[in-house]
Design brief:
Layout (H helix, E strand, L loop, with lengths): L3 E6 L3 H12 L1 H8 L3 E7 L3 H8 L4 E3 L2 H5 L6 E4 L6 H11 L3 E4 L2 H18 L3 E2 L10 H8 L5 E7 L2 H13 L3 H11 L7 H4 L2 H15 L9 E2 L7 H9 L2 E12 L2 E12 L11 E8 L3 E8 L3 H18 L34 E11 L4 H11 L4 E6 L2 H5 L5 E8 L2 E2 H12 L9 E5 L4
Parallel strand pairs: 1-2, 1-4, 2-3, 4-5, 5-6, 8-10, 10-17
Antiparallel strand pairs: 7-9, 7-11, 9-10, 11-12, 13-15, 13-16, 13-17, 14-15
The protein binds L-homoserine.
């Protein structure tokens, strides 16, 4: 059979990986796909650099639309990124009847509903394994491997940059700003790391997993997003003394009233496997009613790990593109007409409705009655305490210090209740600094 023809939009780190892996493993990939997969056109603004990567024999253009207009191209790989031109090109490729493979989590998390609807109407596939957790085949696992299950929750370390920073903060006892600079120097963090450190990248990814897991539309705008910029080395140390590590988790959970969709730093018991995922690695835990707990671990970024996911999508398309669209795996795992309506039966819950447990750190005056006042407010609000740790004032503020840190772990509480009681504690004259609140996930 004639090789399937692929046009590549954007040949940076991931695009080069796709090109190299396809070339290196072409024979194996052909045996799996049942036909060859060939990149025959590449579009990149830097034509010379692109030519240096792909060599002779492949047409390199600086206009992506030349690829979309080429009737011989079957699949377009979009590796441009962002919401702007990438959205226009993906929609144009779909309109031209091309299948699309993309690693663009931002685009799908924000415009997924529009893009998947356009693809369904045109009978083409939009494949996005590389958009979540890089080389880990988590989309395949959720959409196909776990298809028998009612998924209960997913919790993932799905941003390598922040996991690298948190690992360094813990192992070296350093503060966030210091480690971020080092991560940038080593190339683990971008020059503008905002999307990573503010949790936005992780929120894009968990939004996609949530849709696939629960059969809801992609709703990035409803996600609660909190990054790691306010974490201190002290909190990481105290958490460790209490038997926890702090990880930036993307969490989505099905509860009675709807779906939780949130990204924030979380205390995780040190004994959990996911708490021991260090450096730039990613891991996702999925809890299904039939299978129980499953864990997926691997590289969440990088040239060839991400290429591995992109090429898996190319092979899927090579195998399935002649199938009746009704018989392909649906984009979001559930048949489009069965997705819960955004306003209907399975809403994304506001953060105030989320129930979880908490780590609180209060900088207090080291005086009689302070602990009693604080715990009294928690008791009045019905918040049950799990553990309390108080450091010696000298250890916290130096010799002769009159201040100390009070660390409280709570049992499960509604976030709205916790907001109110934190406000009351903050108003106490003996609470001397803004209270630190970090959510705690037992993941059991
Ligand atoms: N910047 C991401 C990370 C990889 O640090 O994991 C691409 O989403």
């Amino acid at each position: 059979m004639k090789p399937i023809q692929v046009g590549l939009l954007g040949i940076g780190t991931v695009g080069s990986g796709v090109f190299n892996v396809l070339e290196r493993n072409q024979e194996e990939i052909r045996r799996r796909a049942g036909r060859g997969i060939e990149i025959t056109m590449v579009a990149d603004l830097d034509v010379e650099r692109a030519k240096a990567v792909v060599g002779d024999g492949i047409q390199v253009v600086n206009d992506a639309r030349a690829i979309i207009a080429n009737p011989d191209i079957d699949i377009v790989i979009e590796l441009i990124g962002g919401y702007g031109i990438a959205r226009a090109l993906v929609l144009e490729a779909i309109a031209a009847g091309k299948h699309v493979v993309t690693a663009n989590k931002a685009l799908l998390a924000v415009h997924g509903t529009e893009i998947f609807a356009a693809a369904s109407a045109k009978g083409v596939m939009v494949a996005f394994e590389a958009a979540v957790a890089g080389g880990i085949p988590i989309i395949k696992a959720l959409r196909e491997g776990l298809t028998a299950n009612r998924i209960q929750w997913i919790a993932g370390i799905i941003n390598g940059t922040t996991n690298f920073i948190l690992s360094e903060m813990r192992s070296k006892g350093l503060d966030f700003d210091v480690v971020l600079k080092e991560a940038q120097r080593l190339g683990y963090a971008e020059a503008d790391p905002t999307f990573d450190i503010e949790g936005v990248d992780a929120a894009h990814k968990v939004t996609l997993m949530s849709a696939i897991a629960f059969g809801v539309p992609v709703q990035f705008d409803k996600a609660y997003v909190e990054g790691i910029t306010k974490l201190s080395a002290a909190d990481i140390k105290y958490a460790e003394q209490l038997g926890y590590r702090i990880k930036l988790l993307g969490i989505t959970k099905r509860v009675d009233k709807g779906v939780e969709l949130r990204v924030h730093p979380s205390l995780v018991p040190s004994k959990r496997l996911i708490a021991n995922v260090e450096g730039a690695m990613n891991a996702v835990v999925v809890q299904g009613d039939a299978v129980g707990t499953t864990l997926y671990y691997g590289k969440g970024a990088g040239s060839e790990p991400t290429a591995s996911a992109v090429i898996a999508d190319l092979v899927d398309i090579a195998r399935l593109h002649t199938a009746d669209p009704e018989h392909r795996v649906p984009h979001l795992a559930f048949q489009p007409n069965t997705l819960a309506d955004a306003m209907g039966s399975l809403p994304v819950l506001p953060m105030s409705e989320v129930v979880t447990s908490y780590y609180l750190r209060l900088r207090v005056a080291d005086q009689a009655g302070v602990l009693a006042k604080v715990t009294g407010l928690l008791a009045e609000a019905g918040v049950s305490i799990d553990a309390v740790l108080q450091r010696e004032a000298d250890e916290v503020g130096g010799e002769g210090s009159t201040q100390t840190d009070l660390i409280i772990l709570t049992h499960d509480t509604r976030e709205g209740t916790m907001d109110a009681v934190i406000a009351q504690m903050q108003a106490l004259p003996t609470v001397l600094a803004p209270i630190t609140r970090i959510r705690k996930e037992e993941l059991n």
